[in-house]
């Protein structure tokens, strides 16, 4: 299977996520597999590495592709050292067609680790979790996987969110959607601080 996500490296551990739903950890010294984990479906979003309690962990998720037009997008936390799943959150999503093109739902953007007042959180978005052109950004507790908040976007987003620490110490999230909106979202709550339409989809 092909790879659309970037490799994650921690010491001798090299972790790849493929289009068939496999998360594979390789020993980079010997190029032999160390562990395997089934991610549920095609993975396009690059996994994210974090050090928590002195140990490396991995956040990863899948889209809805091989499952058919409907299925579950899984957002997961794994141990880098063993591949053990530490928690999982699943959300129903669907794919849809435009002409001959199939656009997959689920998790397509790379998750964002919180900092500052949001250092205990991680953020990610999901595509097509409801009928219509839909997207949602969600915040999770990194230790438990419990959803802290979710905010509906005006349309779905394929882009990865970007985080900033502003002068007040507040962690804020910048991201865009497919119809030309950009958002500035307060990381500690559900509030969308600012939204701007920077272009009109379908117009030149």
Written overview of the protein:
Helices cover 0% and strands 53% of the residues. The chain contains no helices and 20 strands. Strands 1-2-3-4 form a four-stranded antiparallel β-sheet, with no helix packed on it. The chain is globular. The N and C termini lie far apart (37 Å).
Order of helices and strands: EEEEEEEEEEEEEEEEEEEE
- How would you classify the helix and strand content by structural class? mainly beta
Low-pLDDT stretches: none
Q: Report strand order across the widest sheet.
A: 1-2-3-4
What is the straight-line distance between the termini? Answer: 37 Å
Strand content: over 45%
SS elements, strand count: 20
Helix content, binned percent: under 10%
Radius of gyration: 17 Å
Number of helices: 0
Mean pLDDT comes to 92
Shape: globular
Major sheet details: 4 strands, antiparallel
Itemize the secondary structure elements and their pairings.
Elements: E1 8-10, E2 13-17, E3 22-27, E4 32-38, E5 48-52, E6 55-61, E7 63-64, E8 70-79, E9 85-94, E10 96-98, E11 101-103, E12 105-106, E13 112-113, E14 121-127, E15 135-141, E16 147-153, E17 162-165, E18 171-176, E19 181-186, E20 192-197
Antiparallel strand pairs: 1-2, 2-3, 3-4, 5-6, 6-8, 7-12, 8-9, 10-11, 13-14, 14-15, 15-16, 17-18, 18-19, 19-20
């Amino acid at each position: 299977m092909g790879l659309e996500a970037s490799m994650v490296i921690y010491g001798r551990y090299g972790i790849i996520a493929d289009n068939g739903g496999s998360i594979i950890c390789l020993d980079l010294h010997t190029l032999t597999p160390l562990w395997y984990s089934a991610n549920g479906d095609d993975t396009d979003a690059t996994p994210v590495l974090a050090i928590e309690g002195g140990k490396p962990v991995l956040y990863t998720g899948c889209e809805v592709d091989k499952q058919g037009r409907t299925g579950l997008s899984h957002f997961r936390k794994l141990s880098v050292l063993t591949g053990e799943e530490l928690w999982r959150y699943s959300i129903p999503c669907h794919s849809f067609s435009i002409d001959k093109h199939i656009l997959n739902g689920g998790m397509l953007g790379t998750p964002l680790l919180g900092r500052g007042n949001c250092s205990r959180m991680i953020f990610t978005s999901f595509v097509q979790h409801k009928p219509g052109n839909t997207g949602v950004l969600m915040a999770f507790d990194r230790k438990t996987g419990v959803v802290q908040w979710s905010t509906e976007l005006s349309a779905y987003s394929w882009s990865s969110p970007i985080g900033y620490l502003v002068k007040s110490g507040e962690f804020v999230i910048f991201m865009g959607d497919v119809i030309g909106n950009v958002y500035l979202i307060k990381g500690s709550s559900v509030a969308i601080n600012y939204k701007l339409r920077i272009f009109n989809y379908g117009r030149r």
